[in-house]
Amino acid sequence: MVSEGRLARMRILVCVKQVLDSDGPIRIDAAGGGIDAMPGALFRMNRFDEFALEEALRIREKFPGTRIDALSAGPERAAGTVRKALEMGADEGIHLVLGDECYRTPFEIASLIGAYAGDKHYDLILAGVMAEDDMQAQVGPMLAEILGYPWTTAVMAVRWPLFPGTIHVERELEGGRREAFDVTLPALLTVQSGINRPRYPALSHVLRARSQALITIGAGQEGAVVPFSLPWPRERIVKLEEPPPMKTGMILSGSPTEKAERLLQILKERALL
Amino acid sequence: MNDEIIVIAELSDGRVLSVTYEVIAFARAIAAGGSGRVRIVAPGREVQAAARGLADETGMDVLALEDDALELYNTEVWMTALAPWLAVQKPRYICIPHTSRGCDFAPGLAVRLGAACVTAAEGFQQQNGVVSFVRSIFNGKIRMHITPQTDMAVLTVLPGVFAAQEASRKGSCSSPGHVQFLRIPDHPQRIRAMGMSPVATQDLDLMLADVIVSAGRGIGAEENLEWIRRLAGLFSKSAVGCSRAVCDLGWLDHKHQVGLTGRTVAPKLYIACGISGAAQHIAGMRGSRFILAINTDPRAAIFQFADAGIGEDLVTFIPLVLEKASKLNFS
């Protein structure tokens, strides 16, 4: 195939974010503008980004010359997520180190990644459709716009290659419908969950990841080189709050048996049973 | 500073989608707190009729943005059609439905316009002259109030939060809005829209059920689906639903998925088992007549939307319910 020569030299960047597991104990901090990691809280790779990384690995399996860089912008602890990406099979890990735990807006993060990726000539950039923590779904398309790449979000299928430098993608719409696009590379795709089944790290990759050094760049802190300084944020968090525990409903109390009886009684009263 | 609010309408086959009216209601509510007016932009191939209809229904001015290239949605074409015009108008807010389409172009549009961007807004608050937008984070466990720091902001508005009927032209005092037409110039494309495909599996079970028992990641293991099925078996016209996470894990097929990217359902009874209650799921089931939530996490967002909540582990609780129910039937 004509296209394989080009594709074999393809370079892919996968953006991975470290998030605080929302199923674990989380709490709003004393200042009311940030989240406290409580004892037992778990920091891990954003699940949507796992799908993006898996998609990159599948592309490399199809086109063995492909190189995959995994990048995370985050505080010191985010190195763990970059390392996880290496364990899953990324070739290179890049950590844009933020000096503190402050919340960064999607535009700030996209600008930082854009400063790194600007001269790297990636053929394809992949990211999860959104982050599980702030659920903004913005960094991907913003990064594409900053780099001047075309983009497609919520991708559920990627097909290679129709003709050189083009990929065929399907994105997910409401109600499970899909719309298809041919996209010219270089391009950015954000990947919807369920596009694939992310793999568990292979032992060989885990061992390699243990000894491989990350590319570490100080960003957004005193002394950061100019392109890696943060832009002025365009939004400001006024406050975080816990939603009211329940709007209209009732929480059943008592022993499990009493709750079961009460539940059946409610269903009977409402002629639901 | 320009106080104008511009709503980007979403149309399909020349028809205005109902989410558009929700966003108009949202824009109107913000405008009520200030002096700004609301205008609507309707992009598409042939949108005259829809634009006139919108102007008539809402009393607002409508810009029909037309081009053959706007027949099918395409990120690039939408950006080139909207951005130059918006850059000249310099509105205070640009309101877009938080649909798969809106999510696709809104963040890039914000960057191109040098605007702030707030996605999945569920409401807004005005305090000391500062307008902040409310959105859910951490699967709905926490709410974020966020305010733009720029003169222009792009907002996507979560479907199902603002009642659409408020958008209609009230009384007879206001006249239909003015309709303006604009054709966009051609330009090279790196994205080509190749058309739409229907839902892979046509299955009406969810849509027809009176009772839906839904499973979330919180059920813990695939084998616990058996309890979900058996609980559903208590009811005559019932079906098993699930959250997106359960489909992603491969535990159930996507035809069972309830939510923004799955089915929108409104059964008589919706039982959410181990579902955290992310806005994406809530959008697909909030119209249910009675919502019952079973979850071990007392802080799960699902409890905010439930008519009744039970803080128990479904693996021990559902067997109890089944046992009690069988006794009820024989007594």
List its salient traits.
heterodimer, A: 273 residues, alpha/beta, Rossmann fold, two-stranded antiparallel sheet, 7 helices, 27% helix, 29% strand, globular, disordered N terminus, B: 331 residues, 2 domains, five-stranded parallel beta sheet, 18 strands, 28% helix
Average residue-wise pLDDT of chain B: 90
Give the CA-CA distance, first to last residue of chain B.
72 Å
- Please tally the helical runs of chain A, counting DSSP H or I stretches of 4 or more residues: 7
The profile of the biggest β sheet of chain A is: 9 strands, mixed
Radius of gyration of chain A: 22 Å
- The tally of strands of chain B reads 18
Structural class of the helix and strand makeup of chain B? alpha/beta
Number of domains of chain A: 1
Low-confidence stretches of chain B: none
Largest interface: A-B, 85 and 101 residues
Head-to-tail CA distance between termini of chain A:
62 Å
C-alpha Rg of chain B (nearest Å) = 22 Å
Strand content of chain B: 25-35%
CATH homolog superfamily of the largest domain in chain B: HUPs
Order of helices and strands of chain A: HEEEEEHEHEHEHEEEEHEEEH
Strand order of the largest sheet of chain A: 11-10-9-12-8-1-6-7-13
Low-confidence stretches of chain A: 1-5
What fraction of the residues of chain A are assigned to beta strands by DSSP? 25-35%
- CATH class of the largest domain in chain B reads Alpha Beta
Strand order of the largest sheet of chain B: 7-11-6-1-4-5-12
Protein described:
The complex is a heterodimer of chains A (273) and B (331). Chain A is α/β, with parallel strands linked by helices and 273 residues long. Chain A has one domain: Rossmann fold, CATH 3.40.50. Helix content of chain A is 27%, strand content 29%. Chain A is built from 7 helices and 15 strands. Chain A has helices at residues 4-8, 47-62, 79-88, 106-117, 139-147, 203-211, 256-269, and strands at residues 11-15, 18-20, 26-28, 35-37, 43-45, 67-74, 92-98, 124-128, 151-159, 166-172, 178-184, 187-191, 215-219, 235-241, 250-251. In chain A, strand 9 (151-159) and strand 10 (166-172) form a beta hairpin. The model of chain A is unreliable at 1-5 (pLDDT under 50). The longest helix of chain B is centred in the last third of the chain and has 17 residues, at 314-330. Chain B is an alpha/beta fold and 331 residues long. The model of chain B has no long low-confidence stretch (mean pLDDT 90). In chain B, helix 3 crosses helix 4 (100-113). Chain B is elongated, with a radius of gyration of 22 Å. Chain B has a 7-stranded parallel β-sheet, sandwiched between helices. The interface between A and B is large, with 85 and 101 residues. Strand 15 (250-251) of chain A pairs parallel with strand 18 of chain B, so a sheet runs across the interface.
